[in-house]
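Input chain follows. Return structure tokens only.
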Amino acid sequence: MPLHDILTSLSALTIIVAFILGARPLLKILERKRMGGEEQSQLMSIRERLVIDRARRLTLVRCGAENFLLLTGGANDVMVPCKGEQDFSTRINAEELLS
């Protein structure tokens, strides 16, 4: 294989890798514009997610200033409002939720 072919292949590979790495920030900017801009605050977010077993998930959701703990995937779903991290131990008995 001549040196010219090797250099052509390496330069093409370099251009492709640079294009891929450069496209990621551009896609993030486009996603922010599509979602309504940076000035709009995020009202709802998933703070933590824990997989309990094959079907059930325990999710901590923040909506505004409120936190909610969701147990989903079982026979019925459970939602418990929580005021803070200290409130989890007093309001939720894990054995009750999982039984």
